[in-house]
Amino acid sequence: MSMNGLLPVLAASAAIYFCLCSEWATLVDGQSGSGSAETPSSGWGSGAPGTSVGAPASIPLNASDSPPLVGSMPAVNGTPAAAVSSTSAAVGSSSIDPTSSRLRHQDILVHWDAAPPQSHNSIEYKVKVSIENRNPYAGVSKTDGWELGFTWDHDEFIWTCDGCEATTKPDCSNLVQIYGMGNISLAHTCDRNPILVDIDKNRNGSLTSPLLNPGGAIAELSLSIGKKMGDNIYPPSNFSIAARGFVCDVPRQSSSSSSSSSSSSSWTIACGPPALTAEDLEPSSVRQRRTCCVSFSAVFNRTLAPCRSCACSLTSRICTAPSSPCDPSSFSSSQPAMDAALGKSQKDYSIPSMSKNQEKGRCETGCGRQIHFHVGNVAEDRDGIGPDRGGWTLQVRIENFENSVVEDWMLAARFDRQVTDATAVSPSSSGSVNFTVTRRDLEEQFLAFFGKQGNEFLRQKGAITFEVDVNATMILAGMLGVPAEIIHPEKKLTENETYAVRADQKAFPTQVLFMGEECDVPHPMYVPSLPNHSPTPVTFSANRAATISFALLSSLIASLLHLP
């Protein structure tokens, strides 16, 4: 071939090569999460992890550095729960205006249902109060038990109290003068700012998760209220709940929370964690609020995805180089949950490489709890159903470093729907751990794990380990829309089916909550995957096409070099 004939071919091949290389780089860049930052995840696990602005190129910060802004409650036992975010329309059966500048999200609802007095001249009316925990992934423990406080604004007082008692019972002489009734001194409390506590010593102010025990998630009280003759019925103000540092919003008119109630005056008071300030949105503040971090490992990939340094606190001073500031882009120097889960096999694994500066900035996580997920026992022929259809075991370890016991512990992990549908607690753990699935209508769902009776406490300085099995045949059956038992063991799988049923990145959760609080999880680019497999399958193999073009280009150049 002459030089004039080769040059157009050479130019065309070079153009194809560089275009394909550019496209491939874009795909890889998108898969590794190194592009622009995603929208911060919502509360209650309604957002998948993304990336954060300002992350070092070598080890990006986790997406969860962007804090939850608003969120909606996941469905409970397959039924969509009422939305409880600042974007929701209603809470339960009430018609309250959910817009609130005080709350990050609404965990507890106080329903105040006042029955009409017997007559306009009556000086007494009845109130039914219910305190309802709406957080499916965390209860209120006995240690943090509810204490309902409020302020009377129109000289009301509590005649009688059923299901609770007031912590203070001051002198009622000032009300005796107002009402002109000497027997007011017999009232349960005349305190203008009463605080009511649970009288059930077994519950002691605790509220269970509505997932675990819907009945135990509600406390009900009955009050008899004294008021001045002719006065209207008003709700108290300045409500407080004293559980887990929550604050309460103002009372809002609502419909009665009881279908059998003849109440004509009802209010709902929402309580939850305080709303975030501009300062709270800073990454360092987000970490300061976290209590847990997550690490991953898998038998099919010997590179770990550890908890990162200062995942929960930038003030952690147990560091590789105490004089150096903590570098959140490095991996933590202490991984107890991962070490315990891997045991002797830990020597077969390694952490991703770090720069010298990152090595200097390695510190402990500062987290009170660490949670490790390990994909192991990948079976190629479990239950005799053919290669690549066996499934895998997910081993979970929760390590508690705090000096306090975690009552009614609950771990919620978000997986691909195909995985949640095929998950069951393994026989070795079925006696101590149970689970349930929420948000059945979404492509990603939460598996909520909790201890059975006798195993519901996570001891101080203690740990819990359990296993779940994922049945790949059930995943395949779900894909095909057929019963698992009719899948023929000799059926050849398509490429998509093979990808769907094998243990890979989808075997790990994309979001983890412990006791309702979001944990710091590894960035997607560090989640263990099968060798030579990118997290997002590419329909057009751009890297392969680029390789072919490069080979063609090399051949042409070689031909040029041998021209006469």
What does this molecule look like?
The protein is an alpha+beta fold. It has 3 domains: 3-27 and 543-559; 35-52 and 293-524, Immunoglobulin-like; 108-272, Sandwich (Immunoglobulin-like). The protein is built from 9 helices and 24 strands. It has helices at residues 3-31, 173-179, 283-289, 336-342, 356-360, 417-421, 472-480, 495-501, 542-561, and strands at 108-114, 124-133, 147-151, 157-162, 164-166, 195-198, 218-226, 237-240, 247-248, 252-253, 265-272, 292-298, 301-305, 369-379, 391-400, 406-407, 410-416, 423-425, 433-438, 444-451, 457-458, 463-471, 511-514, 517-518. Strands 1, 2, 4, 7, 9, 10 and 11 form a 7-stranded antiparallel β-sheet that branches. Strands 13-12-14-15-22-18 form a 6-stranded mixed β-sheet. Helix 1 (3-31) packs antiparallel against helix 9. The radius of gyration is 30 Å and the shape is elongated. The protein starts with a helix and ends with a helix. The model is unreliable at 16-99, 381-388 and 534-553 (pLDDT under 50). It holds the Pfam family COB_C. Keywords: Cell membrane, Glycoprotein, Membrane, Signal.
SSE inventory with pairings:
Layout: H1 3-31, E1 108-114, E2 124-133, E3 147-151, E4 157-162, E5 164-166, H2 173-179, E6 195-198, E7 218-226, E8 237-240, E9 247-248, E10 252-253, E11 265-272, H3 283-289, E12 292-298, E13 301-305, H4 336-342, H5 356-360, E14 369-379, E15 391-400, E16 406-407, E17 410-416, H6 417-421, E18 423-425, E19 433-438, E20 444-451, E21 457-458, E22 463-471, H7 472-480, H8 495-501, E23 511-514, E24 517-518, H9 542-561
Parallel strand pairs: 12-14
Antiparallel strand pairs: 1-2, 1-11, 2-7, 3-6, 3-8, 4-7, 5-6, 9-11, 10-11, 12-13, 14-15, 15-22, 16-21, 17-20, 17-23, 18-22, 19-20, 23-24
